[in-house]
Amino acid sequence: MATRLEKTSSGRRRREASEQRRQAILAAAIEVFTADGFASARLDTVAAKAGVAKGTIYLFFKDKEDLFEQILLTELCPVIGKARTIAGNTSLPIDVLLAHLFDFLRTEILDTHRRDILRLVITEGHRFPRIAEIYHREVVSKGMTILQRIARRAHSKGELVSNGLVRFPQLAIAPVILAIVWDGLFSKFQPLDAAGLLEAHRRLLVPPTSGTRKA
Q: Which residues contact 97 (CB under 8 A, 6 or more apart)?
């Protein structure tokens, strides 16, 4: 008869193996969705790439949209958490804070496979409202709250003359969206310097002449 320690160890191994299968499915789904698009992607292909039976996918995910939802939560929610931490440094002037945030977004999104995930949301979200709703709830709304908090604080300190960024925090994230769209459509013909774009945009939002320090 198995001892309690043996049962505990066996249960832990089963949980670890189960989590490994789940992570393999998520990684495979990112590749398949990126290559084929969400609408055309097939769970059979995801299962084959993950090295599992198709039925195994349904042990972890209800359907293809649920699988994509979990990709969003797994890949992008941690980014929001880190961005919130950066934005919480109230000692920095807004131009320096935006420099840190833009550099973070470049390295964590534009320079990674997360860029492809966001491109899928942009290109196919209108056909799959549930995906757009999930992305807005878990990423967009939280990101806008972070940016608006930064803008309000800067405006109250006199670092921003206009309240435009307070009213429209979407302005801050606009170059990230532009870079993703441009990369998908035109990068083969005219590569975009994303880092330069973000820096130029930061200078437009907070000109050096406004009295804030340079980064």
A: 86, 87, 89, 150
